[in-house]
Write a structure and sequence with these properties.
alpha+beta; 757 residues; 7-stranded antiparallel beta sheet; 14 helices
């Protein structure tokens, strides 16, 4: 079988001979010198490089300007001539570069109990009907390497069932180039592996006089960075956060065009009982040898099976520094979790849109092999309004499968735990300019927790970015209105632990309620120590340490929750790095860096004023005791997922369902009337009532149907499997408006709204 590299070499060889015969050296040189020019972004062509252009090693005389972004074509210009392609020497007919379709920035977003959404980017749009193929397998042991699992799945031609995930979204977005705050990217407190944005780069991007006509309204001469951002912007005390953007009319530098972002769902992988790993293949994904590239991830345990422990890695405020990279490597190589819960503030792009790309590249090794779900942090959703577009487009949450009205309020089940997320940046009371009633989300939270069945998921984990309990002066009591509104709800339903970020340090509380230690209260854990550029907060601990604070340290690391069984869960935080003062920034702030060769097991972040600055590991064991705490018995609901606003996959690619509540009420009314009129025909009336009730099931949320599409080796579709309840086996038995509760293994249930607490 001929590989991609073989085809490229064969094509290149054919172009050499044809190009030499068709284009005399003198003619090519003359043409390029006529078209060339350094000022226009073209390079000078002479005898030294004309050979490269003639023989196909160089296909264009165009050279990307040093500071400008390469344009992304909105329309594909591909030409298929069977499996051979000709290289074109002239710039107006550019060569197809297959690397533009190669998947980049791959990650797995948790979008449901038994569903992940694989997200990746390409430089050019995909063709229609591209698919993600995936199959699941059983690991030989917990220590079996990822490569060995992939080899077994791929080599097993007869025992492996490959499923298909259709690409359901493929898009690109535009964003203005901005800086969200003075310290954000021109003068970070910690740096690397991505260096700060250079001021001369911003100046060149802002200089429209390099391309605009003198009489154009957007003609602007920029000689230095001060012409873009005045010195006063860096010295202003208030407001601390103030966004500066390149001009909206700057068409050649003021805007950022994202790569094409593609999404496909990998569904129902827990149906494969006994299988604990899944392998997936993306379109055009090849390794360095031109062969198909396979990726894999661990399956998350199901709530109604005894499939062993579930390991959840917890991190927050990561950004993209050398410390971040060390945290990611530790989680992937040492913790080896089933899923990652990120407590918010992901990329710290802070207005400079390309930083979302560089973060996705940095995190790909971890997030392409471990599914992640991300809390909404201030640097993700509200930082001067400069970030939410990117965050919303790139990362999925399970909101559609948890009856939520917002992408930033969600829940899902993982193993023996129910995880619920509260948006830290959603007002708890309706404000002057709000367009939605705030109590809607309080009602959603109460309904979600009331649905929990603690026989299936005995542990409840709350996630929100800004902490309610924090003994650091940084962000102290910043989210107090939300605590006053929601803490009593979480306490009532016996939430076990709350995971937070925002504060760039680590802290664990004792069980606490209303600022007092309470053995039936919630353990609050702050893990905002993922490594972002703003540096550590270890010097701002409050003294004395509050009675509810159990442990705190101002260094960097990540934690993990290990759900062992119905009665035991353990927490472990591990320090991954320390930093030390290393000069000052351009704004005269302390600059922090790691020391070469320093071990995380024996270091101390200086100056960390906590009581335990040298401690490497902090551990805590949760033991369920319902006899002591009545609130731990809460949650005897129906369990499962509640689907709202979800898309129903069908053979045409997915349509949104709707409800007709009026029709159902009318049907019920008619049936009751018939029952009263037909007293002399009791059997007839009962039969009519039964039929009407069957059509008028009380649940009026949405129709929801799982579909699993299988394909054989010839990639032919074998049909659609509708997994509804045991009582209703066919699609025609599920009416619009039915609420379908989904459980592992297809044991689903159609219920009425009266059964939902």
């Amino acid at each position: 079988m001929m590989t991609t590299n073989d085809r490229r070499r064969r094509t290149s060889a054919s172009v050499v001979s044809s190009s030499e015969s068709r284009f005399p050296r003198a003619l090519v040189l003359a043409l390029f010198m006529m078209r060339g020019g350094v000022s226009g972004g073209f390079e000078t062509v002479d005898e030294s490089n004309v050979d490269e252009i003639i023989v196909g090693r160089r296909t264009s005389f165009y050279s990307r300007p040093e500071y400008a972004s390469a344009p992304v074509e909105l329309e594909p210009t591909r030409r298929r001539i069977q499996r051979r392609r000709r290289l074109i020497a002239f710039a107006d007919e550019r060569e197809e570069d297959e690397t533009h379709l190669k998947p980049e920035q791959v990650h797995l977003s948790i979008s449901g109990d038994e569903e992940v959404t694989v997200v990746w980017t390409t430089r050019e749009p995909l063709e229609e009907d591209f698919e993600v193929r995936y199959a699941c397998a059983k690991r030989n042991s917990e220590d079996e390497e990822e490569k060995d699992v992939i080899d077994r799945v791929v080599s097993s031609k007869t025992q492996t069932t490959w499923h298909i995930g259709k690409v359901f979204e493929s898009s690109s977005y535009t964003q203005q180039m901005c800086l969200a705050s003075a310290t954000s990217l021109t003068a970070p407190s910690m740096g690397g592996p991505k260096t700060p944005v250079k001021r001369d780069v911003l100046a060149k991007l802002a200089n429209t006089s390099s391309w605009a006509d003198r009489d154009a309204s957007n003609y602007n001469v920029v000689n230095s960075f001060k012409d873009v951002v005045p010195d006063a912007w860096f010295t202003m005390e208030k407001p601390w956060e103030k966004t500066v953007c390149l001009g909206y009319a700057n068409a050649n530098g003021g805007w950022y065009r994202s790569p094409f972002i593609h999404k496909a769902k990998i569904k129902d992988f827990n149906k494969e009982r006994g299988f604990d790993a899944c392998v997936y293949v993306l379109p055009h994904d090849e390794d360095e040898n031109g062969e198909t590239k396979y990726r894999s991830f661990k399956k998350r345990g199901s709530s109604n099976t005894n499939e062993g422990e579930t390991i959840l890695s917890v991190m927050g405020d990561t950004g993209q520094t050398e410390v971040t990279k060390k945290v990611f490597q530790h989680v992937k190589d040492v913790v080896k979790p089933h899923a990652v819960i990120h407590t918010g503030d992901v990329s710290y792009a802070d207005g400079f849109a390309p930083r979302w790309d560089s973060f996705a590249e940095l995190s790909e090794a971890l997030f392409s092999s471990v599914p992640v779900v991300i809390a909404s942090g201030n640097h993700d959703v509200v930082n001067n309004g400069a970030e939410y577009t990117a965050f919303e487009k790139r990362y999925e949450t399970p909101w559609r499968r948890s009856a939520s009205y917002s992408k930033n309020f969600w829940s899902f089940n993982v193993g023996k735990a129910h995880v619920v997320h509260i948006d830290s940046y959603s007002s708890v009371s309706t404000q002057m300019f709000d367009g939605a009633v705030a109590d809607t989300f309080q009602t959603w939270l109460e309904n979600d927790l009331a649905r929990v069945n603690r026989k299936q998921t005995p542990w409840i984990i709350a996630v929100f970015h800004a902490p309610w309990y924090n003994s650091n002066s940084a962000h102290y009591k910043e989210n107090e209105p939300q605590r006053l509104k929601y803490e009593q709800i979480l306490y009532k339903f016996g939430v076990d632990v709350a995971l937070n970020g925002h504060v760039h340090s680590y802290e664990r509380s004792y069980p606490v309620y209303n600022n007092q230690r309470d053995e039936c209260g919630i353990t609050h854990i702050v893990v905002g120590d993922g490594g972002n550029y703003e540096g550590p907060y270890g010097s701002s601990w409050m003294t004395p340490q509050p009675s509810w604070s159990a442990f705190r340290e101002g260094s960097f690391g990540a934690g993990s929750l290990i759900v062992h069984n119905d009665t035991h869960m353990s927490w472990k935080w591990e320090r991954n790095a320390c930093v030390h003062p290393d000069g000052t920034t351009d704004l005269n702030h302390t600059y922090w860096s790691m020391r070469d060769g320093e071990s995380a097991s024996s270091c101390r972040t200086d100056p960390d004023k906590s009581e335990n600055p040298y401690v490497v590991v902090d551990m805590h064991v949760f033991v369920k005791n319902e006899n002591k705490c009545e609130n731990r018995k809460m949650g005897t609901g129906i369990g499962g997922e509640k689907l709202t606003f979800t898309e129903i996959d069908d053979e045409e690619g997915g349509v949104a369902s709707s409800t007709n509540d009026q029709y159902r009420i009318q049907s019920l009314t008619v049936a009751l009337a018939l029952s009263l009129v037909c007293l002399g025909s009791t059997c007839y009336a009962l039969w009519k009532t039964t039929q009407a009730l069957k059509r008028a099931k009380f649940a009026v949320s949405v129709r929801a149907v799982h579909r699993t599409t299988f394909d054989d080796e010839d990639e032919e579709e074998n049909g659609v499997e509708l997994n509804v309840s045991n009582s209703f086996h066919a699609a025609q038995d599920v009416d619009e408006g039915d609420e379908v509760l989904l459980f592992p293994g297809g044991q689903n249930r159609i219920t009425s709204s009266s059964n939902v607490m």
